[in-house]
């Protein structure tokens, strides 16, 4: 007949111990969760220490008075140029809007139904994606060199 | 409900724009400013790793020439200097030939090609028969009941270019209008004149080889529109076109 060598240990003490352990773990987890999440450092705003070495400072001759004068005058010319450009852009946009309003008014005079159809939102328009212009047009038949791009950005988890 | 007989005929026209592929040349002020910005950035910067390496190697060379001692490194070892690297990169850059900004079509002024004037918008113009005149204008089609005006404009574009052209039409609303009265000879009570509603679209597909352009067509810039369009029509079209 199969029989035990030792009597079985009582289960109750083990169960209690295990439950106590679980509760302690849960309390620790709750404490960690309650703590505020760590801020993710913005790597662009932290200059690495090796770049604040004094040896790295560039040695250039100081600016002459004519140079500073020229710079100030250039900045003034630039602000005027930009102001004119901005005004021209705003005027162009205004004419565009006026032309469209005129067209819509004429359409309304013609037929209300077409007018309502014109006023409806165009769902397929946005999001609108477009490749911007480059300095030179794409070379026909250009074979770019092969290579692999390894992404080494650091990923932080909160 | 019986609609009152409208005296105006409706047309939908499509202004198809090919957007610029290269950047426009900088104005004089922009170039001067760009140079100044570069200079200021250089003045405010520190030396980079590559520049530090170059400076150290120059120091080493100078010291070696002055003291004239033998190399303490093994003579067989060839050290790549930063200067050599720079020269290698320069050579590689000079070997690359980019596509020209001024294309052949520019030089020959072939106005039917899309490769012309890559830094400005190009518009499609077709020669259509209006009344008994052959005129250059933006492709238009007469409105048929049952379709919206945008549909008319799309149909006009499809009749000229074929179905396979991808174009992004900017919204359901017309951008401009040209109203004209028929000449007295054909003007009647119900048929006073016509209203042409313009729609704008951006050309998405880059090659039109599959398009069957039957009629005479041209791709022109805003400045060149004056060579082809009549003055009243041109005035109205210019209002909704940006440079």
TrEMBL record, chain A:
It holds the Pfam family MRP-L28. Residues 1-14 have a biased composition (Basic residues). The keyword Iron does not apply. Residues 1-30, 127-147 are annotated as: Disordered. Residues 90-117 form a coiled coil. It comes from the Eukaryota. InterPro entries: Ribosomal_mL40 (IPR019192), Ribosomal_mL40_metazoa/plant (IPR039145). It is found in: Mitochondrion. Keywords: Coiled coil, Mitochondrion, Ribonucleoprotein, Ribosomal protein, Transit peptide. Its main location: mitochondrion. GO terms for cellular component: mitochondrial large ribosomal subunit. The keyword Transcription does not apply. Belongs to the mitochondrion-specific ribosomal protein mL40 family. This is Large ribosomal subunit protein mL40.
Automatic annotation (TrEMBL), chain B:
Residues 8-106 form the Large ribosomal subunit protein mL46 N-terminal domain. Residues 47-56 have a biased composition (Basic and acidic residues). InterPro entries: NUDIX_hydrolase-like_dom_sf, Ribosomal_mL46, Ribosomal_mL46_N, Ribosomal_mL46_NUDIX. It comes from the Eukaryota. It is found in: Mitochondrion. Residues 47-72 are annotated as: Disordered. GO terms for molecular function: structural constituent of ribosome. This is Large ribosomal subunit protein mL46. The gene is Mrpl46.
